[in-house]
Task: inverse folding
């Protein structure tokens, strides 16, 4: 057999081998992209618990690739994460817990918008959609209370470094600045601050809070009901698990006194109500909240929306969260008509 014929045979075998390898590779990639997560993602033992949580969550009908990117994704962060996990698996680091990384949050927020456009629009219209720049570059606030690591507990809980790595103090008469300019427009309180993607579908666990120091979510049902005092008297606090999430940030100071720090616990005529009894989900608007109970439960028999409270005007001396009957009746609680 002459050499040219051998060359043709070897070339054919080489091309066939390459085609076989490429076909197997594409087939494997396609399998991991479109396959059942129970047979793909959970095939790695370190992902078993994550897959089990997903299978019991409200998102169990949504494929992993829809939020995290599959084998065919063009999301560079998702691909880096997948490759890093494979490397860690074979280098002895597989026992490390799987954490949600700061760089993945913007992509997951976009995934939330895809399936929950109304909730996303409501969140964008709320004050909770504030950005890192609005929070940490506010000159008036920074004069009275310069940014500290504790600020990250509620504003930027996914940031994985210290406050000094996030913002730079002014030099002389200059202004505060972001060390990472790309982060300036990112949300400081994203969807994932109050929602865990893999949360159990139980109604009491649909809300959760992401704890900055531990970089993990705690479901609302696991959060404690705080004890709050008005003077010496303990205030009745709603047992609604969702309120416990609100109170991780809207909480009193170390004295546990009602209304201190950023506490909004209902008291007075509204004592015992939950935040969600008045504030709409995601938008946090309370514009139509009075209509739910009044005038059916108005002891005064007048339109409560026109009373002198902060609901009518933020300049009012009667905070809607703590207003009591005697506040407007000379310190005496009036009798029912």
Result:
């Amino acid at each position: 057999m002459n050499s040219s014929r051998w060359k043709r045979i070897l070339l054919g075998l080489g091309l066939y081998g390459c085609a076989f390898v490429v076909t197997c590779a594409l087939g494997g990639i396609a399998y991991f992209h479109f396959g059942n997560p129970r047979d793909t993602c959970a095939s790695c033992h370190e992902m078993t618990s994550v897959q089990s949580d997903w299978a019991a969550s409200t998102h169990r009908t949504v494929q992993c690739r829809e939020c995290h990117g599959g084998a065919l994704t063009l999301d560079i962060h998702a691909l880096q994460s997948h490759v890093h996990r494979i490397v860690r698996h074979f280098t002895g680091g597989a026992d490390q817990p799987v954490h949600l990384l700061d760089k993945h949050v913007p992509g997951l927020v976009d995934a939330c918008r895809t399936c929950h456009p109304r909730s996303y629009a409501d969140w964008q219209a709320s004050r909770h959609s504030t950005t890192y720049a609005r929070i940490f570059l506010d000159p008036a606030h920074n004069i009275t209370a310069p940014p500290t690591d504790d600020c990250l507990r509620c504003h930027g809980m996914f940031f994985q470094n210290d406050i000094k790595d996030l913002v730079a103090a002014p030099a002389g008469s200059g202004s505060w600045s972001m060390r990472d300019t790309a982060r300036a427009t990112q949300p400081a309180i994203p969807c994932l601050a109050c929602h865990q993607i893999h949360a159990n579908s139980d109604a009491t666990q649909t809300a959760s809070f992401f704890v900055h120091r531990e970089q993990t979510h705690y479901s609302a049902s696991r959060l404690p009901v705080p004890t709050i005092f008005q003077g010496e008297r303990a205030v009745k606090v709603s047992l609604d698990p969702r309120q416990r999430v609100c109170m991780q940030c809207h909480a009193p100071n170390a004295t546990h006194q009602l209304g201190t720090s950023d506490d909004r616990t209902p008291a007075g005529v509204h004592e015992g109500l939950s935040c969600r009894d008045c504030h709409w989900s995601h938008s946090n608007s309370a514009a139509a909240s009075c209509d739910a109970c009044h005038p059916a439960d108005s002891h005064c028999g007048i339109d409560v929306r026109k009373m002198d409270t902060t609901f009518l005007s933020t300049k009012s001396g009667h905070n809607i969260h703590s207003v009591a009957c005697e506040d407007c009746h000379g310190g005496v609680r009036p009798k029912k008509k």
Observations:
- The first strand starts at residue 167 and ends at 168.
- The longest helix spans residues 3-34.
- The radius of gyration is 27 Å.
- The chain has a mean pLDDT of 82.
